Amino acid sequence: MSALRDAQLAQLTRPGTTPALVVVDVQRDFGDPAALGAYGLTEEVVAELDATVTRIGALVDAAREAGVPVVWVELGSDPARPWRSSNWLREGDYDAPMAPTEPCIVGSAGAEWYRMQPADGELRVVKRGYSGFLGTDLDQRMRSAGYDWLTIVGLTSECCVDATAQDAMQLDWPVVVPRDATAAYDLAVNEAALVQLELNVAVLSDSDEVVSLWKRVTA
């Protein structure tokens, strides 16, 4: 472990600090292989995705046991407010209505949390795009709650996890990303996303180390 990393983690575990776990988009349309046929996932990717969702669920349980707040960030695609730039980027038609195949349409089964659920009283934010901070009151609500640093996990590493972590860092939040608690639909893409996150955005860790950090400040 480098001296810099030692110093970074020491800052996070000072007495009186309050960490929070931010779970991004572990929803059926992003985590359930049955909903991901269009992505052509390999068996290796499906296995890694399954393991990642399991680890995220375990982190949620560990956070609750340690008294660490859990924050839920979820996509809610609203047909009345289509994301037109996304339509243009993916389909070439800026003015197209939202397709019924759009992920996580509000009220659909695909928008449900996958293999985990928010508990009563846990902070929950619905977003329209990639970042949990864009167009939401997430930053204000977490600051009002007195959080000091964030562990960000979820799906997918190169998209909504990256965007949420990027915005968190730029909004002055120290960010830790456990490399075993995020995934993409291509193993090489996931590795590249982690390199980028470590370079400019977050301290990379793993689930076991994150739990040990939480225990140091909540014991």
Report what the structure shows.
The chain is an alpha/beta fold. The chain is 42% helix and 15% strand. Strands 1, 2, 3, 4, 5, 6 and 7 form a seven-stranded parallel sheet that branches. α4 links the parallel β2 (70-75) and β3 (124-127). α3 runs parallel beside α8.
Q: Specify the number of helices.
A: 8
| Structural class determined from secondary elements | alpha/beta
What is Rg? 17 Å
- N-end to C-end Cα span: 24 Å
Total strands: the figure is 7
Question: How do the helices and strands line up, and which of them pair or pack?
Answer:
Layout: H1 3-12, E1 19-24, H2 28-31, H3 43-66, E2 70-75, H4 84-91, E3 124-127, H5 138-145, E4 149-155, H6 160-170, E5 175-178, E6 182-183, H7 187-200, E7 203-205, H8 207-218
Parallel strand pairs: 1-2, 1-4, 2-3, 4-5, 4-6, 5-7
Helix pairs in contact: 3-8
Would you summarize the structure shown here?
The protein is α/β, with parallel strands linked by helices and 219 residues long.
Features:
single chain, 219 residues, alpha/beta, seven-stranded parallel beta sheet, 7 strands, 42% helix, globular
